[in-house]
Write a structure and sequence with these properties.
Elements: E1 5-7, H1 10-20, H2 31-43, E2 51-53, E3 63-72, H3 122-136, E4 142-143, H4 146-150, H5 156-168, E5 175-185, E6 188-198, H6 202-220, H7 229-243, E7 245-246, H8 257-262, E8 264-265, H9 267-280, E9 285-292, E10 296-305, E11 308-312, H10 314-317, E12 325-327, E13 342-344, H11 346-349, E14 353-355, H12 371-374, E15 378-379, H13 384-396, E16 401-406, H14 409-421, E17 437-441, E18 446-450
Parallel strand pairs: 1-3, 7-8, 15-16
Antiparallel strand pairs: 1-2, 3-5, 4-6, 5-6, 9-10, 9-14, 10-11, 11-13, 12-17, 16-18, 17-18
Helix pairs in contact: 3-5, 7-9
């Protein structure tokens, strides 16, 4: 084909990964910054061509191609503010085969909650299915539905829909980017082919999927029985936190393999493992992305629990991830689990998190399955009898820690004065307990004590 313009994508992808490596997911370097840095390297003589133009003249009416859109999943887009949600299962799309595909390869999880899919119009949904089909089969150079171009979709929609697919489907752990080729005739876009970028070949992916499924089945088998989904959500939250270390340079840190198999990850790995396990427990859960202070990219979850919507941040539930004020003794020794981010409202979340705006999100207002409400540890006053009952419940159940949260800042200040400054906390503990530790979260108005 004469006259085509081709963007070299592989080296740009490697550059993105090098630039973002020390950030984990969390630093959120934009693609615009990546492109600018890439261009700067080219202009200063790194020797890699940014644009490569074919020789020869383009014949009138001939089809020209342009390979563009190389994209890495290290800093995907995310979601904000919205309306009604529904839990939609997959529509039974079968993976098509290409020259590079294993016959019958399809890594799709039928239990995935396709939250983002529902916010697309019909052409967008068709491209969602096209991209999903290609990624599920590890496909290359497959055409996106041409009728969607006639319906108004453009190459600008590819990135958005690709991000939707990955937000809905944590099981595509092997996908780390994409690229597409667009075909034009007399300046009219007439065809787009799409290729996934994969970290492993199909055999290695199949092996790793078996490891993921085996690890997940072992965890799911220990989940609480009964009709109370809250107990299962708390189990996933606590189990992933206790079995995962937050490690910025952990292998496979952008996917659930790092958590379920390796036990070391960053926020996106935590969130995708949470999503996968909850979906397999019948609790709809989707990946949410945005920023946290001080402007770092971050990932967490939205879930539908007992008919209500809540946010959940398993990464920030790992108390060692965040710097927390601690005192009395051993300031670097923190409680293992921080419950401030287990089933929280939008109002609570926005104190520290800022979701992106790619997809509408609900206004989460329900509190009945918030951790502090369910555990009887939400305080609207600082009365001694209320505190005594709260501590007694924790001690009688055999717990060696107790987390308290206040509804208002004035109550929180009274609590700190009473329990810490006046050291009255010891009057609520069993005789013989003379030393304890605590950690407090000023923004969430919470404090955790742990003792032996």
């Amino acid at each position: 084909m004469g006259g085509g313009i081709r963007e070299e994508g592989a080296w740009l992808h490697r550059l993105k990964k090098r630039l973002g490596k020390k950030c984990g997911y969390g630093k959120g370097m934009s693609r615009c910054v990546m492109a600018a840095l890439a261009a700067a390297l080219v202009l200063t003589g790194c020797g890699v061509p940014y644009w490569e133009k074919d020789s020869g003249e383009q014949a009138a009416g001939a089809l020209s191609s342009e390979v563009v859109g190389d994209y890495s999943t290290g800093a995907p887009e995310a979601v904000q503010e919205g309306r009604e949600l529904t839990w939609q299962s997959l529509l039974g799309t079968q993976a098509s085969e290409s020259q590079d595909d294993e016959p019958g390869t399809d890594f799709t999880d039928p239990l995935a909650w396709e939250y983002c899919y529902q916010y697309l119009d019909e052409p967008g949904r068709q491209w969602y299915r096209d991209i999903q089909r290609i990624l599920a089969a590890m496909g290359q150079e497959q055409e996106l539905s041409a009728q969607c171009l006639e319906a108004g979709l453009t190459e600008e929609d590819i990135d958005r829909i690709f991000c939707y697919v990955l937000a809905d489907h944590p099981e595509y752990f092997y996908v780390d980017g994409y690229r597409y080729t667009k075909y034009s005739r007399q300046d009219k876009l007439v065809k787009i082919t799409f290729s996934g970028s994969y970290t492993y070949d199909s055999q290695e992916c199949a092996r790793r999927r078996e490891q993921i499924q085996s690890a997940a089945e072992a965890l799911l088998a220990q989940a609480p029985d009964g009709e109370d989904d809250y107990e299962r959500v708390r189990y996933v939250y606590e189990t992933l936190i206790r079995n995962t270390d937050y490690v910025l340079d952990a292998p496979d840190s952008q996917n659930l393999y790092s958590v379920l198999v390796n036990g070391a990850s960053v926020c996106q790995g935590y969130a995708k493992a949470t999503q996968y396990l909850l979906n397999h427990l019948g609790i709809p859960c989707v990946l949410v992305q945005g920023q946290v202070e001080p402007g770092e990219g971050h990932a967490w979850n939205l879930l539908l629990l007992n008919g209500e919507y809540y946010y959940m941040d398993t990464t920030w539930g790992d108390a060692s991830y965040r710097q927390t004020e601690s005192s009395l003794q051993e300031q670097d020794w923190l409680p293992q689990v921080n419950y401030d981010y287990l089933c929280v409202t939008t109002r609570q979340l926005l104190r520290t998190h800022v979701p992106s705006e790619a997809v509408p999100l609900p206004d989460c207002t329900a509190t009945q399955d918030n951790y502090y409400v369910r555990e009887g540890c939400l305080l609207s006053d600082c009365e001694e009898e209320s505190l005594r009952q709260t501590f007694d419940r924790a001690i009688s159940s055999g717990r060696q820690e107790i987390s308290l949260k206040c509804t208002e800042e004035a109550v929180y200040r009274q609590l700190l004065e009473h329990l810490i400054e006046q050291k009255e906390v010891f009057s609520y503990l069993e005789p013989g307990c003379s030393t304890l530790h605590y950690a407090r979260n000023e923004k969430q108005l919470s404090i955790t004590f742990w003792f032996s």
